[in-house]
Amino acid sequence: MSGFVLRNGHIIDPYTGMDGIGDIYVTADGKISGIEPEVDVKRGEKPEVDQHRQHRCASLDVTGCLVTPGLIDCHVHAYEYVTPLGINIDKTCLARGVATVVDAGSAGSSTVPGLLKFIGEASQTRLFCLLHIARHGLADAGCVTCDGGGECDSLSVVDVDACVKTIKANRDKIVGVKVRLARNVCDQGKNEAEVYRRALQASKECSVPLMVHHSISSIPLGEENGLGCPGDLQQGDIYTHCFHGHIDNIVDLDTGRVNPHVWDAKRRGVLFDVGHGQGSFAWHVAEQCASEGFWPDIISTDLHTGSQAGPAYDLVAVMSKMLHLGMPAAEVIRAVTNTPARAIGKDQEIGSLTPGRQADITVLKLEDISQDLEDSCGEMRTLKKAFKPVRMFVSGTEIPVAAGMDWPNLDSVKACKARTAVFRADEIARKK
């Protein structure tokens, strides 16, 4: 591999504050050696050119493109062939501009060695993981809307000591704890509160974030006395699926506005993550949140076997949805680079174009389109702009970019509408 320079791209790096036209130099050993912007954004002056970098470099023209740190998808399910939800991360993430993924609880303390060895070591995509509080993780579990039972139906497998011991032995790759709070995966709600307490305890003992899936749950958003979610989450914890459309979503049913407990959590530093998935993004919820200036801190896909062919598709599709809602492009980039890197404690390694780091770089075009795109309820909105990955580098090695799926996938739309009708009827019946 020889060194190269990406020329004339619009570089956006929220970590350094770079937002302007410039060149990125990459060494033969796959590290960023320097950036030469037209204007140094921090000093407001043109920097001196480092002459040695101008020689013996292949020149790649990326005029008209956005050049960002390698994208990070902070919520996927990567344990292919072992869990029902597992996907091939090189084919579905890396080939679509994502350099790093965080597996969100596919494995627990008993099953994570296989995830790290047979997926992490075998993939070009960088893999970190959140350890499920249940020892077996999602080995026999699908979406929470399934009727087949769940990973926390028995408290005997919700093992704080095993979780803590495993995290402490693998801090380089295990970056947090994951729990799903939903009736269907916690013995119809009977175990939910205790499962939540144990997950909170494990994350606290290890000083790592807790990511919580919270929908179709018996636990409220917050209470004066008693457990709440995100009411009991702390700074740095992650509330995923923040725009889901189930009846217990973050928009208050009575006021039609974002619930005060949710605003309180955001103010104290709880991170809100899109976690789109198969059933966890509703246009009407996201639009209300956007109207109040409630933006996600992290944009992720919850990509798995049930969402990769729609309604999530890939990370750039979810990013495009947030852009459609009015989230500024630079903040969209922050939510898939610096913020997730910081959330998992890896912001000194990934999520930035800082010289000296591995050259994980995504090159995007922001295209004008007019295309409908579905949410998890089967509702459509017409997008006018979309991100498209055009070049991808991991540690300086170029990765071929694959064409994304055409959307909307009408089969996905039909399935989303059918699922939504069933669960809305069930939720209404529960509330009576």
TrEMBL record:
Pfam families per record: Amidohydro_1
Coiled-coil ranges (or none): none
InterPro entries given in the database record: Amidohydro-rel, Deacetylase_Atu3266-like, Metal-dep_hydrolase_composite, Metal_Hydrolase
Any one Gene Ontology molecular-function term assigned to this protein's record: hydrolase activity, acting on carbon-nitrogen (but not peptide) bonds
Amidohydrolase-related domain location: 297-397
Superkingdom per UniProt: Eukaryota
PANTHER family: DIHYDROOROTASE-RELATED, IMIDAZOLONEPROPIONASE AND RELATED AMIDOHYDROLASES
Official protein name in the record: Amidohydrolase-related domain-containing protein
